[in-house]
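User: Round two. Same drill as before: sequence, then structure, for each protein.

Assistant: Same drill it is. First protein:
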Amino acid sequence: MNNLKTTLLLAALTGLLMAIGGLFGGRSGVGIMLIVSLAMNLGSYWFSDKLVLRMYSAREITAEQGPDLFKLVANLAHRANLPMPRVYVIDSDVPNAFATGRSPQYGVVAVTTGIMKTLSYDELSGVIAHELAHIKNRDTLISTVVASIAGVITWIAHMAQWSAIFGMGRSNEDDNGGGLLGTLFTIVLAPIAATLIQLGISRSREYMADEIGGAISNNPLALASALEKIDYYAKHKVLPASTPSTSHLFIINPLSGTGQWMTNLFSTHPATAERVARLREQARNR
């Protein structure tokens, strides 16, 4: 099912890029953006996980470098009947975590140094189990593909915005610049469209990963407690290098404390309070 979602998502984002190309370059613009989008789709499938890890300066660790974390991930992966994922650490005091990789065989779990200092052993187990649930459900491919392509769309929007500021845009809708309509579409509608696509694939997956993660760790209440702690820190300090195009990867939106109404309106995560309530209900029903 997620393979179908990934295909539909890539097609939707390809169409969006081609629409932008058509507004600014006519038929030739459509052709150019089609070629660009095909190259992006291929690159996103094979290299999106590496790009995201590099963006956050994540470093891979071995069993010798981080024995406690490595053993915890290995035990939970075995319990979840998954291959051992690679383990990465992000040097940041802000607690958070995400998973990536195009399949369970290429799974990656990344955590910040802050999360290991902030959470108890049981709480960290719940977080790791949540990320393993994303790998088990094959959510990670679609998540990282979205991150890379949505990032490019946002970059195009920023380029169009600067072009308009410095007078490089055109006011005549018949010229190749796409006119005022094309500029407004790229600056405003394209990022919103990309965010809406992220929204459509993200919120339900978080609920499911919470439920499966609670089962894998055998402690839904510990995961609930971890979510509350991570959410508290996210509202008071932003994770360095975090962007709207990659925020959906994390267990808690790292931009939830920015105060930007647009970021909160199109949040890729369900409300933490609702997630905690569901986990507590799961614990009661065990």
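Second protein:
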Amino acid sequence: MVSAFVGTTVATRRSNAALLRQRAVDLVRTEQARTQAAIVAERSRMARELHDVAAHHLSGLVVQAAAVERQIDSDPESAKRGTAWIRAQGKETLDSLRLIVGVLRERPGADGEHAADPHDAPPPGLDALDALVRTARAAGDTVELTRAGTSRDLSPIADAAFYRVAQEALSNARQHAPEAPVRITVRFDGREVSLEVVNDPAPGRRRTGTARQGMGLVGMRERAQLVGATLTTGATPSGGWRVLLTLPLHPE
């Protein structure tokens, strides 16, 4: 009886030890999988940020450079102002790219947290739309910004998503409907916040309603899904284009 009891106890302990070892292995594998998923998600986010910065700023630089080229002989003063704007925008683009690359260069500090980076800064949000509009106007775009309702604080990731969608919509309007007026409306009510960007068709031509394709719209949808917002895009009856981003607001 005693030997049987001892044998059973030893076998049970061995079984428990093997089970604990297996659980430890499973935990390590789960943590590795989570880490890998986080790395992939971060790379995707950084690719999106790089695309947004490049698409918005560089498209404006190309448009302004073409205008300067036409003005060099006929209007030297305007050409000088244009080159000054290109220089300023080039610097802003480099600063934005350095900010993004700075995130990739972060190293854990002694306490396990990320060490501070000289280029680290919070991403722009709805408060930065005025500066975005001023930049677009300086590039020659006709942009109108309207705000309605009582503004409320959004989470940083939602705030950044709204800004990036507005930025991408402006870039798309500049690319697909150059010189067309653009209207941006930010509206807060008791239940939701919405961002609407509508551009008219390009002067001298009417859009046929063909859906815009490319990484821009895909990025908008990804950002909307990330923060639980709804994105609606499509042609307007006049032949322009409309982007509508809507996010439900919660009392808390």
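Strands lie at 143-148, 182-188, 192-199, 230-235, 241-248.

User: Perfect.
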